[in-house]
Amino acid sequence: MDGGPTLTLRYPWDTPPEPGKAIEIAEGVLWMRLPLPMKLDHVNVYALDDGDGWTVIDTGFDTGKSRDIWGALLSGPLAGKPVRRVVVTHHHPDHIGLAGWFQTEHGAELVTTRTAWLFARMLTLDVQTAMPEETRAYYQGAGMDPELLAERIAERPFNYSDMVAPMPLGFTRVQQGDVIRMGGRDWDVHMGNGHAPEHATFWSRDDNLVISGDQILSSISPNIGVYATEPQADPLADWLEACERLSHLARPEQIALGGHKLPFVGLPLRMRQLIENHHSGLRRLLDYLDTPKSASACFAPLFKRTIGKGEYGLALVEAVAHVNHLYHTGQVTRTRGEDGAWLYQRRE
Ligand SMILES: [Zn+2]
To answer: How far is the CA of 95 from the centre of ligand 1 (A)?
Structure first.
């Protein structure tokens, strides 16, 4: 340590754990992984040793494969002690997918934020056999490629419950400012926002560990998306507020344990990058909006790379988040195009 500013991130472990295996990050803190059937092909989960049982942080999707891997973990690295508690950082299916299963099959207590629980409980019960009219209207407003929209209308929509086990009644709330004891450490609870509303992060008081979920990731920028649930939302404002606030807690010696990719050291630098990435994206976007354009026409300046079909959905909701932010901050105007898409243009 030279005491100077950190210029790059450092990765103390260059190889992730194999399925069914764990890597010990620190005494009583295990890192494990579950596969995801997507371009982002894994999610990180952690187990904290509470003496007479384990606290598990996040769970993976509810798939047969995930349940099998959890079976191997429970009879392997976690053997000998029950999972007494499952702590979920946010409501996305790759994190909360098996929370209900841990509750019903393993008698675990679910600890999460109130918003995460309400969203998860609501969405597991909201099963659609066809695309709702509001979703179609939202995609049209975003300027979704008409061929792709027709394809999506023709197929059964993705349902949250496809990947998330039923959520029984009952959970324990964590909120901003709480202190929670897990793995022999006391952790300050700080809320993230923007990637998911009321996203919990945990900052150890007793050593340098930070459990950051998807609020802070090492080598990918967390998706900031607008959905048909709240088409006028400005999650980018929420994201920037949360990252600015959390950046005051960041120290160069902390090890950040995120929901995806590798654990890393260099939180102060990473927080600056996560914030600046979006500010520079907004600047490029504003430059580009000299003539009216739909959200779907904004991929090139925002992402600076070609967006394949597998990423189109995430790219579109993220593009809407950026134009919504420019709109709500008064930097662009919008009008309806003839095809129903909102067209955004820079205010001169
Ligand atoms: Zn995730």
So the answer is: 6
